[in-house]
Amino acid sequence: MSISHTHPGTFTRQGTVTLVGAGPGDPELLTVKAARAIQQAGFIVFDNLVSEEIRALFPSHAETLYVGKSKGQHSSTQDEINDILIKYAQSGIDVCRVKGGDSFVFGRGGEEMLLLAQKGIKVDVIPGITAASGCTTYAQIPLTHRGLAQGCTFITAHADKKLDLNWPALAQLNQTLVIYMGLSKTDMITNQLIEGGMDAETPVAFIENGCTPEQRIFTGQLKQLSQLKQQHQIQSPALIVIGQVVSVANQMQWLEQLAERAGTQELAEHKLKMSA
């Protein structure tokens, strides 16, 4: 517990800010520690990527504030969010800053942690399952796979200007590339990777609303990236996965279909024997 001195002879308890990674959407992927912190919070500040199922777990005694950033809607600026966190913590309230995925993976959690610490506010951080891990797993796409990918790289395409990235390095064939917030830049991503040396027929996947009941998965080839997006009207939030590991999901789908057909045939044969 930290103490701040306000007036001579009086002390005010200062609250703690806990940065909580809420995971990619499925409430059962929320860690026990994260769930406990949410239940104990007096004030919860949450983002657009925190699923409705997880929001339903917010305790009734806690004040809540939505500060999500979504296209076409008013967004709280980072400075406004920082001011809110500082104000409530300094007033003695324990705050949960709940973010989708993991706060330290494209979530500006590091910035918030440093700023709060500079203000003398105690900060706790609880990790969450980042979308690149959770969503690919639910889509049956392993990030690494013997013979297909020896590593993986996460990048964000959320930038106003052309992305300053080492595209030839990203185009290496022995790794998986996972792109956050890349829907508006599919043409650029395709062109840069192909120019960097990646095969235009490299398998790709879109995972929309991953780890939720609304999850949709579409696969194709790198050269079809923009076509897939338009054809299926893919909307945010969506991940782009590029690499040979996408073929594993296609193999799984084929094997599951075979198993289903075999089961159907076995059931039909059993019924035939019973009726004989």
TrEMBL record:
<keyword id="KW-0627">Porphyrin biosynthesis</keyword>
<dbReference type="InterPro" id="IPR014777">
    <property type="entry name" value="4pyrrole_Mease_sub1"/>
</dbReference>
<comment type="pathway">
    <text>Cofactor biosynthesis; adenosylcobalamin biosynthesis; precorrin-2 from uroporphyrinogen III: step 1/1.</text>
</comment>
<comment type="pathway">
    <text>Porphyrin-containing compound metabolism; siroheme biosynthesis; precorrin-2 from uroporphyrinogen III: step 1/1.</text>
</comment>
<keyword id="KW-0489">Methyltransferase</keyword>
<keyword id="KW-0949">S-adenosyl-L-methionine</keyword>
<dbReference type="InterPro" id="IPR050161">
    <property type="entry name" value="Siro_Cobalamin_biosynth"/>
</dbReference>
<feature type="domain" description="Tetrapyrrole methylase">
    <location>
        <begin position="16"/>
        <end position="225"/>
    </location>
</feature>
<keyword id="KW-0456">Lyase</keyword>
<dbReference type="GO" id="GO:0032259">
    <property type="term" value="P:methylation"/>
</dbReference>
<dbReference type="InterPro" id="IPR006366">
    <property type="entry name" value="CobA/CysG_C"/>
</dbReference>
<dbReference type="GO" id="GO:0016829">
    <property type="term" value="F:lyase activity"/>
</dbReference>
<dbReference type="InterPro" id="IPR014776">
    <property type="entry name" value="4pyrrole_Mease_sub2"/>
</dbReference>
<keyword id="KW-0511">Multifunctional enzyme</keyword>
<dbReference type="GO" id="GO:0016491">
    <property type="term" value="F:oxidoreductase activity"/>
</dbReference>
<keyword id="KW-0169">Cobalamin biosynthesis</keyword>
<keyword id="KW-0808">Transferase</keyword>
<dbReference type="GO" id="GO:0004851">
    <property type="term" value="F:uroporphyrin-III C-methyltransferase activity"/>
</dbReference>
<dbReference type="GO" id="GO:0009236">
    <property type="term" value="P:cobalamin biosynthetic process"/>
</dbReference>
<dbReference type="Pfam" id="PF00590">
    <property type="entry name" value="TP_methylase"/>
</dbReference>
<keyword id="KW-0560">Oxidoreductase</keyword>
<comment type="similarity">
    <text>Belongs to the precorrin methyltransferase family.</text>
</comment>
<dbReference type="InterPro" id="IPR003043">
    <property type="entry name" value="Uropor_MeTrfase_CS"/>
</dbReference>
<protein>
    <recommendedName>
        <fullName>uroporphyrinogen-III C-methyltransferase</fullName>
        <ecNumber>2.1.1.107</ecNumber>
    </recommendedName>
</protein>
<dbReference type="InterPro" id="IPR000878">
    <property type="entry name" value="4pyrrol_Mease"/>
</dbReference>
<dbReference type="InterPro" id="IPR035996">
    <property type="entry name" value="4pyrrol_Methylase_sf"/>
</dbReference>
<dbReference type="GO" id="GO:0019354">
    <property type="term" value="P:siroheme biosynthetic process"/>
</dbReference>
